[in-house]
Amino acid sequence: MENCATAGLHDTLTSRKAEEAAAWLESLVGPLGISGHPSEKVFISRLRNGLILCNAINKVHPGAVPKVVENHTPLQSQPLPAYQYFENVRNFLVAVEELKVPAFETSDLERGNLTTTLQYLLELCIYDTLEAGSAAKVVDCILALKLYNECKQINGGNGFYKSIRSPMVMHPANVNNSQSLSSDSCRRLDMPATSEKQPPANVEIQKLSDFIAKLLIEHMADTKENINDNLLMSFRTGNMDKEKVLSKIMVGCFEDKLQNNFPENFLKERSKSQAHSTLVPSEDSSKFKDYEDLKSLLTKTKTEFEDLQSMFQTDLRELRYQLQEMSAAALEYHRVLKENRNLCNMVQDLKGNIRVYCRIRPAITGKKSNVIYFVGKDGSLVILDPLKPRKDGRKKFQFNQVFGPTATQDEVYNDTQPLIRSVMDGYNVCIFAYGQTGLGKTYTMSGPSGGSIKDMGINYMALNDLFQISKERKEVINYDIQVQMVEIYNEQVRDLLSGDTSATKYPFTFLEIWSCSGDSGLSLPDARMYTVMSTTDVFNLMKLGEVNRVVSSTAVNHRSSGHAKTLMFARVSPEGDSFGQTISTLQFAQRVSTVELGAARVNKESSEIMQLKEQVENLRKALASKQPRSLPEKPKAVSEQTPPRMWRLSIENGSNMKSQTVNLGDRKGSKTPSLPNRSRRLSLEGPRYSKKDNFQEKVAPDDISMPSCFEAVTLLKYGQSQDPEAKSKMNGHSSFASSTMQVYNLPTTRSPSSSYRKRSVKTHCRTQIPLKNNLISSANGKGSQIKKSLQTIGKLINGSEKRAMRRQSLTGFQASGSNRSHDSRRNTRTYPPDNKAMALTQDKVKNIQ
Ligand SMILES: Nc1ncnc2c1ncn2[C@@H]1O[C@H](COP(=O)(O)OP(=O)(O)OP(=O)(O)O)[C@@H](O)[C@H]1O
């Protein structure tokens, strides 16, 4: 058995070194009693009692071990008791240390006791490398002592020793690469450890495993020890490669040992080796610092990234809250805005849908007399008859507002603005100026010709405002603003933007403007409609219309929608020589201010509903007059049902379901209706004048010097969008905005019956622009009503020809003859003597002629 084991060690470095060590010891202390090729185990067993070692060191260094425990028994006899050789070995190790020669441990000599059993082999294998040298350490120690001795001899008795490590200990796996160590031990011992290559640990493990497996198999075969019958059977039958199977078993066992039981330094080495394999620079590498820096940078970046991530999450949460708040605020804002608009319109309604503002033109230089006695901030105005400078010459009027001669355009517009803005909320608005020639109608409505921006009149400012609003609301509503400009003269409507100078004669005598719904739209038939984008566009069109303008007359409508809010500017002069005109204008304005139209309504109703309402109204009238009649087939029959009053001019609220046909002129001498029951109609019929009436009504209609001129702007909203998208954009509000702006201008004539010319600029503001063709074609059905409304305005101011004649007979005013031709009426127009503007107007008229 010893031979078998020895045979396995012959090729190893340990064995060769052991031979060398044994040979040297023999040269010192004599034969050791071992063969020429002793195994490590045998060699160690001979040294176990420490005698040889102590004797050898005493030879090298006499007295190194002063007292050696001698064993007088034969070498091959039973070993000494442990305490005996332990003392020798201990003394040897102390001496070795004193000589600074690498020592070993006493336990290293114990290995030799584990022999012949499988346990030994396993243990040997497992600890092999580990302690490859328990025996090797002993051998190394002896060889180091040999070296010491050689050096001592060379140096003349002074031995030396460099601290060296056993090659076996340092490089336990480096078995095959140390072939020359024994032949040149001195040189080899000085070699730096780092110069030697270290094969990967797993290769070494594999080699070791193979080796152990081989040993195991040989041992098992020799001892016939059967570990596993099946395994051996497999080996015998050749089904399995014995060495491979055992090697596999041992590798598993070995790896387990490595993980759990290996010495810490080995594991460190191993992890270091693994670290190398992952290209991590070694600690002494110059790149190691960079590596460490990068590592710390990575850690720092990771931390920063996590911080940023959490900040981002926080910001995101914050943003979400803010967004929710903003969204809630926006919703609230729109709600408040809507409520504000509603309240604003309510206020407008409460103020009355016909409002009369009086504006006094500044006195012209040289005119000393002043009829304006008092201008109150509450809308009161007192004028003084220059011929009766006493108290009884004063006449008081009450309007919604009175603007004195110093009032600026801005101040006037500020009061007008809410009314104009309500156009965009669906209300019809009509604004017109009324008064004697040269008193500033054009100035108020358009501004002075060639004036600066601050002089701009209501037309400009209103359009600017409307375009501005449409711009602000474009996210919600798309307004399509379109313009028509027509002239009405002698019952003819003429499109001033078409360039066609021929007027169209319409087979009706009434013109009416009312708010339409449905897709019928509101436009004058056959009049071209222009889409405009800005105020400038509108006024460019107006300039074009001016060129084509002619005078026209129209009949009077006794019905009106003239669902609208109306603002009248009564223009008066402060000069005494205009007192007659002034009082006439004021009286008329006063009368207008007593008219009630009922609450203006947003136009949402369809044309069918409007017609049905008219029919209901007609039936109510029929019932009221106790003259039951059959239901008229068409709404236009209303005119036939109304008692033919020649001088009757009525403005009524057609939407009111109650009868509203009572009119001032129809009072039959009774008292003026109290406010709640005030007439919905304005009658200028003279004979019903009552002396008992209050101040305003003391002015008999026939005393009214009818306006010679007036200018008007009508802004209407109407219609209903057919576009579902538009509807949804308007929050279910089905109507869309449309506005009509009309400017009326009468030839300057003192005759109330004179014809007037009317310029009409109509703007449609629509959401989600419907097809223009639809709009225009659908307007045909309402054309007559539109024109009727226009005529209503004219008639409201002028009355009919007969009315004019009647007035003339009553007041003695030299009215232009109603039968006179248009041209002749124009020629009778009179101007204040020193009024340049009037002269300009006259020139303008001449040009037209
Ligand atoms: N408030 C005012 N401040 C300064 N000038 C004014 C004012 N009102 C009118 N005027 C001036 O009076 C003159 C006549 O005004 P304007 O042409 O507007 O009168 P009108 O009523 O339109 O006349 P017509 O009916 O003849 O056309 C113009 O020169 C105008 O600048």
TrEMBL record:
Composition-biased stretches, type Polar residues, lie in 652-663
What is the protein's given name? Kinesin motor domain-containing protein
Q: Where is this region: Disordered?
A: 623-689, 812-849
Which family is it part of? Belongs to the TRAFAC class myosin-kinesin ATPase superfamily. Kinesin family. KIN-14 subfamily.
Task: Identify the Pfam families for this entry.
Answer: CH (PF00307), Kinesin (PF00225)
Q: Which terms are listed as keywords in the entry?
A: ATP-binding, Motor protein, Nucleotide-binding
Q: Per UniProt, where does ATP bind?
A: 435-442
In terms of superkingdom, the source organism counts as: Eukaryota
Location of the Kinesin motor domain: 353-561
Coiled coil (residue ranges): none
* Lineage, top ranks: Eukaryota, Viridiplantae, Streptophyta, Embryophyta, Tracheophyta
UniProt domain Calponin-homology (CH): residue ranges = 15-129
Organism field: Hevea brasiliensis
